[in-house]
Amino acid sequence: MAELIYGFHPVREGLRGRRTPLELFVDEKLKKDKFDELETLAVNRHVPIRRRRREDLNRLVGNVHNQGVVLSLEPFHYTDFDDVLASCRQSGQDALFIVLDGITDPHNLGAILRNADAAGCTAVILPKDRNCRINSVVDRASAGAVEHLRICQVTNLVRTLKQLQDFGAWVYGLASNQEGQNLYNADLKGHVALVVGNEGSGLRLRTRQQCDLLMSIPMAGEVASLNASCATAIALFEIIRQRFAK
């Protein structure tokens, strides 16, 4: 069954991404200068373009905030985790994984995926249970980053962390600012798997126990923690900073 994504950024990335786009629906009153880039991308990929009334697009996606562009494309396919590991072994380059443990807010998940794309992550790993799945809300919140990332869905998160460790990755869990080593004092070079927990309860016990190290972000204010997407961005770019440090 085809999926629908909407909004300029998600649609543009959908036309540029791995999935096969099927049809592009455009508000019949949309100004041409706003549509030129999408039209070029659609033509290049042989995607039919349909002009529709804005009211029809609103009904199609059940949302009035679609910016007058909707893309129909093949369903999202998760990447096989074993294939990712095999590819990493062949590349010989340092790998960077994000492992999510109970991220249930689609906007938070989308923001994390946007961070992952910006940091050039090797893959993002989601558990099948107790975690938000990839959908149009996540796609929009990620500004279309979903269409470019390798995203794996796994049944047993602890087993997956063990596989990452066997591969040679250090598994670092993000914890609250009252526990774990200061992020900026940790050696984050080499293969890294960054584990991020639920927005409220954090990492589950078995996940925490499987981590090689728990890290925290030092904070000077009164609020106990950052939300998951902000914390992920800070940790990711500290990893990137260390990789490129002379």
* Dominant shape: elongated
By CATH, the architecture of the largest domain is named: 3-Layer(aba) Sandwich
Tally of individual helices: 9
Named CATH topology of the largest domain: Alpha/beta knot
- CATH class category of the largest domain: Alpha Beta
What letter string, H or E per element, gives the SSE order? Answer: EHEHEHEHEHEHEHEEEHEH
Computed CA radius of gyration, to the nearest angstrom: 20 Å
Number of strands: 11
How confident overall, as mean pLDDT? 92
Strand content: 15-25%
Structural class: alpha/beta
The CATH homologous superfamily of the largest domain is termed SPOUT methyltransferase, trefoil knot domain
In spatial order, strands of the major sheet run 7-6-5-10-8-11-9
Low-confidence stretches: none
Distance between the termini: 50 Å
Which bin fits the share of residues in helices?
25-40%
Question: What is the quaternary state of this protein?
Answer: single chain
Question: The biggest beta sheet, please?
Answer: 7 strands, parallel
